[in-house]
Every structure is written in structure tokens, then in C-alpha cells.
Write a structure and sequence with these properties.
Radius of gyration: 38 Å
CATH class of the domain at 2-190 and 626-703: Alpha Beta
Helix content: 40-55%
Length: 705
């Protein structure tokens, strides 16, 4: 855990006499409740976003680096000494200093530049000093500066990644979770996602639970956050379950490949394989029953051993009897010739159709390769764009000029007012393209296997055609030869039967080999099932934690004046959908839970977010120990509810709550109430909160003393 002790901004302007003549603000914070109150447009949002920025959490505000901050900290600001005078100050350089202390009482200062005249100080880096802000000005103090990066791969798990360092500083060990956007399929539970549950900003934060959570490709990210904060066993079990599920999926796919291999053997050997289990099984007796059959008539089939015995008997007959003359064998030869000729042309026609289909499949492979190149090119372009924005190639310097054409551009390149379609960030687009790439690669892999099988079948069909051609030539030669000559077709027939016997034995060996491979898969599947069964042993402990969390959430909720439903209709859901989140049920046995948002008034849903966030802070065992509410008086809520919120926050004295609130702002409720700070704090113990009251007329950025 950690608390914020001090926040300071330092701005060097065009009117500064020297580098020590600075502007900005400087505030101290306490453990427990901190209230930053003031009229609109006095700088509450500026202070709020500076905390996000100093902690590397500006992505929760929907921007990277200094783009999340107000222009007063990076372009210009105004100071009005009186109603008739306005002095404009152009920003030359600026930075934020945030002093934080962890639960081991270690104090560090985070320094992050907003604008710098030197390339040495990047806005994508955070400098960490060992000591307080006051210690920075001491000449002999060993500050032990360390530099960490915010943006870029490895920022959560790399040695020099800020979030990796910060999670260690606040004594949080980030678990590995499933992540579809990582090549390894796993990543840490990014610290930014955790803070989306704790920092509720004014614009988007009150619209849903964890509404500002960035997209990182984490599977069921909201569930993972709750599991982590409440220290549920499921956070580790879910990763193990995911590993076992992926192993099960792999085993299932391998099983299906083996089943397809049986189908390939059937076609290659003109036979039928029976008793093949359609689904993955651990019953070895079912696998043992798999066997091949050959049709000997339209109605009769025999197994492989019987077929081998039949063919062997035929060979023995041919060997034991003397060679026939053509005269003796002419009628049989003619009938055989006509049948073999008919079969030959049928097979030839089938091969032609087969080759046409194979060419279509091969063309599909070419199309997939082209699509893959296109997607890879788009991913590369997106990554380059991310570098452009992350490295501030397009920066806000004076006229905001495009680096290519020198045209003036605004911070918002397009108006989103009339856009109805969902807008994805670069990160979301990139992850979508990576998902498309995986789909195409998977399709290419499957198609490659199919093409290999079909090419092998084609070789088999052509080889069979050649054997028929050899037999037809022998039969044709017999039919036009001298009647007294010996029949050559009988010799060819005997050789072909012997070859057929050898092919069937190879076929039997291939079936036996596949059966052994199925047994190996069955053993692995059995072990997988056993391991899955062991994971259910920790669910009872999780249920105890969830029940306690649910009680605390509901206590807060109804204390805040929630009226849309009665207490027994509200619960924390234990399964999908809305797992770990509040739901509405008409009665306890209602099988279909409904979203609490659509079953609550707008103001009551805001109360839900208050209650849920505070319950996470109060009951969380892995919580960073801080929450931040920006303008909680939303959607026609009332003073009594806000008063109860402030009281509940002040009672959690072992952690830190920071509330930014307007004063004299109409709440828009039926009582026509305004936010009255005196009423909100009148029942609070003066020792349990700190009030930072902003000036009624002056903005927050002033000359530093």
C-alpha cells in the first residue's frame, strides 16, 4: 500500500526572472480522507490529472503522456491579480513532483516532466528520488536517482519498467494472467487496470464499473481485478484453469487430427474404419475396438485379418495351379478387361475432379498469404503510429504544427460529436489486427495440413491408376495374342495381389500406430481432468471472502440512500454474467441475474460505484490502499447521500481517500439542492479529514513562494 503525502507542480515561464522563479501549486495530503474543494474552473481537474500523470496512470484519462494534461501546464496560463487585469504566461518547461510513502514508511519522490527544453528529460520517463520533495533541495542528501519508463513493452514486468518498480514499492505482486495480445498468451495483471477500479474520473468514470480500464488483451480483465484486490484463490486458480483449458483444447484438437487421419487412411485404402470415438475419451477399451473393414460385396464386409487371409488364399491358388493359356482364360480375361477399363475411366474422371478442387484450395492458400501480408503491414503501421504519439513526434509546441506538412493541427484531430460507430484506440486496433493475424495463421495451418493430405491422396490415386493401366495392358495383350501362349495377366494379377497384401499390412500398422497415439492422448486427458478436479478445493474460502465483501458493499449502498431496489434483491454475482459485480434478482431463486445499472436510477447507480469502490478499499487484501473520486455528486444525487459518502470515507482512516468536489454546484435534484461544503463536513471528526479549499477567484496555478 501507499499514500500520497505531497503534490507539487513547477512551471518555468517566459516571465520568470531565473530558473528559480517558478509558478505552479503545492499541496500536502494526509492519510484518511482528503477533500479538494472549490468552484468550477479553479483547477481541481488540473490537480486531479497531475496525480494520474505522476503515477503514470494518464491512460485511464484516455491519453498518453502529457496529452492528458491541461494546456495551463504545457502551453500557457493566466493569472488575474484583480478583475480588471489578466497576465498571460507562456510555459517554457514544467514538471510534476509527487511524494509518496509505502507501508514500510519508505518515502520517495516521483518526478515527471510535462514540457522540457532538453531531450534528456522525456515525458515517457518517471524519475524516482529516494527521499521527500523537501530533501531534493538539500545539498548533501543522497537522492539515489533511478529512471523508469512508462510507455513501451516491459513497463509492467521489465527491470526498468515503472509499473514493475512501483508495484514492488507498494508491496503488490502482480499475478500472471491470460492475455490474448501477448505471444506467450500471458502477461502480468497490469497495474493500470487495477487503478481503473480505484480512480474514478469525472468524464467517463461514473458510467460503469471500471469504465476507464484500458484494453490490454487480458482475458476477463474486470474479473481478474476483483479476484486480485480481494485476494481470491481464483486469481491463481483461473490462470491454472486457463493453462489446463488450453491443454484440454490442444488435446482435443490433436484427437480430432488423429480422427481425421483415420478418415485419410480409409480413403487411401478404400476401406472403412469402425468404432472410432468421436469425442476424446479416457476409456482405452473403446480405443482397442477400432478396426478396419473391407467390402467384399454390396452387403458383406470383413475385417482386415479376414481380408488378408482371403487375398493370401487367392495368391496360393494362383501359385498352385499351372499357368493358363490365353484360350483357356479368354472369357475371364475379356470380362476382367471390360470391368477394369470401366473402373479405370471412373478413377481417371475422379482424379480430374479431385485435382480441380485441389487447385481451388491452393488458390485459397495464396489468398491467405496475401491477407496475412496485409495485416502484418497494418500492424507495423499501427506500431509506428504508437511510436509517433508515445515519443511526441507530434507535440504541442506553440503552433501545433504537423511535422510533415507544417499545417496547424488541434489536439483533437477529428470531431467525434456525430460519430456513432465505436471508436477504438491504436492499442485496441493493434490487438484486433493481431487477433486477425492469429485467425489467418490458424486457417493457413489447417489448410496446409489439408493440402498435404490431399496431395498424398492424389499420389495414391494416381499410383492406383497406373496399376490399373498395367493390368489393362496385360489383359489387352492377352486378348490379341496367340491362343496357345500363356496368359500374362495372371502373373500381373498375382503380383498386384501380393502388393495389395503388403499395402494392407502397412495399413494395419498405421491403424495400430494411431491407436497408440490415441492412448497417449487419453492418458494426458485423464491427468488434465484430475488436475482440474483439484482446483475446486479453494472455492469455499473464496466464498467466505465474497460474502463478507457483499455485506460491506450492501451496507455502504443502503447507507448512501439507495432506493431503486430492496436489499435482498441485490447481490454480488458469483458466476457469469456480471461475475463479482452487483446484480438485481427479483427473488432469491431468480435464475437470470440482471445488470444493476439498468435496474437502478442514474443517481442510484452512482451510489453503487461509491459503495463498490469503498468495499474494495475496505475489504481488499491486495489493494494499493488509495481511492480517488472526481466529482462524486453526479446524476441528481442529493446532499444527504454525499454527506454519508464523506462520512464513510473519513471512517476508513488506515487508507487514503481523495475526493475532488465542486462547491455551490446545483445537483439538479427535485429539492434544487446545491453542493454545500459546510453541510458535507459538519458531522466529520476534524482529525479524520484534511480540507484543501481552493480560492474562490484565483486559479490554482500561482507564483510559488
Amino acid at each position: 500500500m501507499f499514500i500520497i503525502q505531497r503534490l507539487k507542480s513547477e512551471v518555468l515561464t517566459d516571465k520568470s526572472i531565473d530558473i528559480t522563479d517558478l509558478y505552479g501549486f503545492d499541496f500536502n495530503f494526509d492519510q484518511g480522507l482528503n477533500i479538494i474543494a472549490g468552484p468550477n474552473s479553479r483547477g481541481k481537474t488540473t490537480i486531479n490529472t497531475c496525480i494520474y500523470y505522476a503515477l503514470g496512470m494518464e491512460e485511464l484519462l484516455g491519453a498518453h503522456n502529457e496529452k492528458a494534461l491541461d494546456k495551463a501546464l504545457k502551453q500557457e496560463f493566466v493569472i488575474k491579480p484583480n478583475d480588471d487585469e489578466e497576465n498571460y504566461y507562456r510555459v517554457l518547461s514544467s514538471k510534476i513532483l509527487l511524494e509518496v510513502k509505502n507501508d514500510n514508511n519508505k518515502v520517495v519522490t516521483l518526478e515527471r516532466y510535462i514540457k522540457s527544453s532538453s531531450s534528456e528529460f522525456k515525458t515517457s520517463n518517471i524519475n524516482v528520488y529516494n527521499g521527500s520533495i523537501a530533501d531534493l533541495s538539500k545539498e548533501d542528501y543522497d537522492l539515489n536517482l533511478e529512471i523508469f519508463y512508462v510507455n513501451g513493452e516491459g513497463n509492467n514486468d521489465g527491470l526498468n519498467g515503472f509499473y514493475n518498480w512501483f508495484s514492488e514499492f507498494i508491496n503488490i505482486e502482480l499475478p500472471e494472467v491470460s492475455n490474448s495480445s501477448r505471444t506467450s498468451n500471458y502477461s502480468p495483471l497490469y497495474l493500470q487496470t487495477i487503478f481503473s477500479a480505484l480512480f474514478i474520473e469525472q468524464t467517463k468514470g461514473w458510467s460503469d464499473f471500471f469504465a476507464t480500464m484500458p484494453f490490454f488483451g487480458i482475458t476477463k480483465a474486470k474479473e481478474k481485478i476483483v479476484e486480485f484486490l480481494l485476494n481470491l484463490n481464483e486469481i491463481n486458480l483461473s490462470t491454472k484453469k486457463d493453462i489446463l483449458s488450453k491443454e484440454k483444447s490442444f488435446l482435443t484438437e490433436e484427437w480430432r487430427k488423429k480422427i481425421r487421419a483415420f478418415s485419410y487412411l480409409e480413403r487411401k485404402n478404400n476401406s472403412t474404419i469402425i468404432n472410432v470415438p468421436g469425442e476424446l475419451t479416457t476409456d482405452k477399451t473403446l480405443i482397442e475396438k477400432i478396426t478396419g473393414q473391407f467390402a467384399v460385396s454390396e452387403t458383406d464386409k470383413i475385417n482386415i485379418n479376414q481380408f488378408l487371409e482371403l487375398k493370401s488364399e487367392h495368391v496360393r491358388e494362383l501359385e498352385q495351379r499351372p499357368l493358363s493359356t490365353i484360350r483357356e482364360n479368354r472369357e475371364i480375361a475379356l470380362a476382367t478387361f471390360n470391368k477394369e477399363k470401366e473402373d479405370y475411366y471412373k478413377l481417371q474422371e475422379y482424379i480430374e475432379r479431385f485435382e480441380n478442387k485441389l487447385r481451388v484450395d491452393s488458390q485459397q492458400s495464396v489468398i491467405l498469404i496475401s491477407q496475412l501480408k496485409t495485416v502484418e503491414s497494418e500492424i507495423k503501421d499501427h506500431n509506428n503510429l504508437k511510436k509517433v504519439f508515445n515519443e511526441n513526434i507530434i507535440s504541442e509546441r506553440g503552433a501545433n504544427q504537423c511535422p510533415t506538412c507544417s499545417q496547424e493541427v488541434t489536439v483533437d484531430l477529428i470531431s467525434t460529436k456525430n460519430i456513432k460507430i465505436p471508436q477504438l484506440t491504436l492499442e485496441e486496433n493493434t490487438n484486433f489486427l493481431k487477433g486477425q493475424k492469429k485467425i489467418i495463421e490458424s486457417s493457413m495451418g489447417s489448410l496446409k495440413e489439408t493440402l498435404e493430405e490431399k496431395n498424398n491422396l492424389l499420389l495414391y490415386f494416381k499410383n492406383t491408376l497406373r496399376q490399373k493401366e498395367i493390368l489393362l495392358k496385360s489383359l489387352s495383350k492377352d486378348l490379341i495374342s496367340d491362343d496357345r501362349a500363356f496368359s500374362e495377366s495372371e502373373v500381373v494379377k498375382k503380383l498386384q495381389i501380393e502388393r495389395e497384401i503388403e499395402d494392407v499390412r502397412i495399413y494395419q500398422g498405421a491403424i495400430d500406430e494411431l491407436k497408440e497415439e490415441l492412448k497417449v492422448l487419453a492418458n494426458k486427458y485423464l491427468n488434465n481432468t484430475i488436475e482440474f478436479g483439484k482446483l475446486g478445493e479453494s472455492e469455499l474460502e473464496d466464498e467466505t471472502k465474497l460474502s463478507t465483501f457483499e455485506d460491506k458493499y450492501k451496507d455502504f449502498l443502503f447507507n448512501f440512500g439507495y432506493e431503486s431496489n430492496v436489499r435482498y434483491q441485490i447481490s454480488i454475482n458469483r458466476k457469469e454474467p456480471f461475475k463479482y459485480f452487483p446484480v438485481y434478482k427479483n427473488h432469491s431463486n431468480d435464475p437470470i441475474p440482471q445488470s444493476i445499472r439498468i435496474n437502478s436510477s442514474a443517481s442510484d447507480f452512482v451510489r453503487n460505484i461509491w459503495a463498490y469502490t469503498l468495499a474494495l478499499l475496505k475489504n481488499g487484501q491486495n489493494t494499493p490502499g488509495i481511492i480517488m473520486f472526481d466529482e462524486p455528486g453526479q446524476h441528481r444525487t442529493n446532499l444527504n447521500s454525499l454527506k454519508a459518502l464523506f462520512k464513510a470515507c473519513s471512517d476508513i482512516s488506515d487508507k487514503q481517500t481523495i475526493i475532488f468536489t465542486s462547491i455551490d454546484k446545483p445537483l439538479g435534484n427535485e429539492e434544487n439542492e446545491k453542493i454545500d461544503l459546510d453541510i458535507l463536513i459538519e458531522d466529520l471528526d476534524v482529525n479524520k479529514y484534511k480540507l484543501i479549499r481552493l480560492d474562490d477567484t484565483l486559479k490554482v496555478i500561482q507564483k510559488l513562494g
